[in-house]
Amino acid sequence: MLLRPVRDREDDAQAVRFVADAALLAPPSACAPPPGHAPLPAEAVRRPHHPRHLARTDPGGCWLAEDAAGRPVGVVLSARREGTWGLSLLAVLPEARGRGVGGALLKRTLEYGRGCLRGIALVPPHPVAARVCRRAGLELHPATRLTGRVSTASLPAPDGAVAEGGPGDRDLMDSVDRRLRGGARGPDHEELPRHARLLVTDDFAGSGYCYLSARSGGPEGPEVRVELLGATSRRLATRLLTAALGAAGEGRRVRIEGLTAEQQWALDVGLAAGLEPDTAGWVGLRGMRPPSPYVPSAAFP
């Protein structure tokens, strides 16, 4: 087995997607995740732009494992942002599991994040993922997700102005990130707006931002996802999420992942909009309490 850095190239991005897809679509077994759950999946990392972005910004945190024939059999993607380490993906082909591939990849990403006081990952609901994150020193906080079709008629109007965001809001978002997760995302806020809609709010009481992305969805069709949300108060977070669900539109399918017990404000907004809650995995944290008010991203936790 050979470990090498993921490169900012199309063929490496496709190799990442190959491994992630194989892990996602693997048949269930006693030691493998069921269909739809890779060991540490993030749908966004299956898109070519995400691994290429992290290969540029964090080559030391992104690794491919290849067999003797040069075929990719495992991948890990992670990032460091001002002392906060984030784990985006750790996946191994079903036929390569049990051979130390995952352990070797995990060791590399933990070495990359060794100097970071804080760590975070969005963890899917499977024992394999739980074991991986506990080995990485993360505390597991049970999470809820909200899904369903939005009823805009039952949503109140936002209690203040919410505007379309842009490059000029970078300092605002970095400030919110430092307050919530101990480190600004920096270059991630250059990448995310290329693929997701950005909403921001800013007034005398504080500020916040929210990304919305359109996904192909599953058998029930396309959906809008709250990709990431952070604010300096629950009131502003409620305003942003209310505006985001209104922007999604009447009857559109929406998904919101990674809500810890601290995000009751988000449950209130989602339930008012007709979304349904269920339990879904964990938010893994190291050296920090669950950020709030906050909705994490699987690809950019």
Task: Tell me what the structure shows.
InterPro entries: Acyl_CoA_acyltransferase, GNAT_dom. Helix content is 29%, strand content 31%. It has 301 residues and is α+β, with helices and mostly antiparallel strands. The chain has two domains: 2-137, Aminopeptidase, CATH 3.40.630.30; 145-283, 3-Layer(aba) Sandwich (Aminopeptidase), CATH 3.40.630.90.
Concise summary:
The chain is 29% helix and 31% strand.
Brief descriptors of the model:
301 residues, alpha+beta, Aminopeptidase, 13-stranded mixed sheet, 8 helices, 13 strands, 29% helix, globular, transferase, Acyl_CoA_acyltransferase, Acetyltransferase (GNAT) domain-containing protein, acyltransferase activity, transferring groups other than amino-acyl groups, GNAT_dom
The second-level CATH architecture of the largest domain is: 3-Layer(aba) Sandwich
The outline comes out as globular
- List segments where confidence is low: pLDDT < 50 over at least 5 consecutive residues: 28-39
CATH topology of the largest domain: Aminopeptidase
Instruction: Provide the structure class.
Output: alpha+beta
Average the pLDDT over all residues and give the rounded result. 89
CATH first level of the largest domain: Alpha Beta
Q: What is the CA-CA span between the terminal residues?
A: 29 Å
Pfam family, one: Acetyltransf_1
Protein name: Acetyltransferase (GNAT) domain-containing protein
Keywords: Transferase
InterPro entries: Acyl_CoA_acyltransferase, GNAT_dom
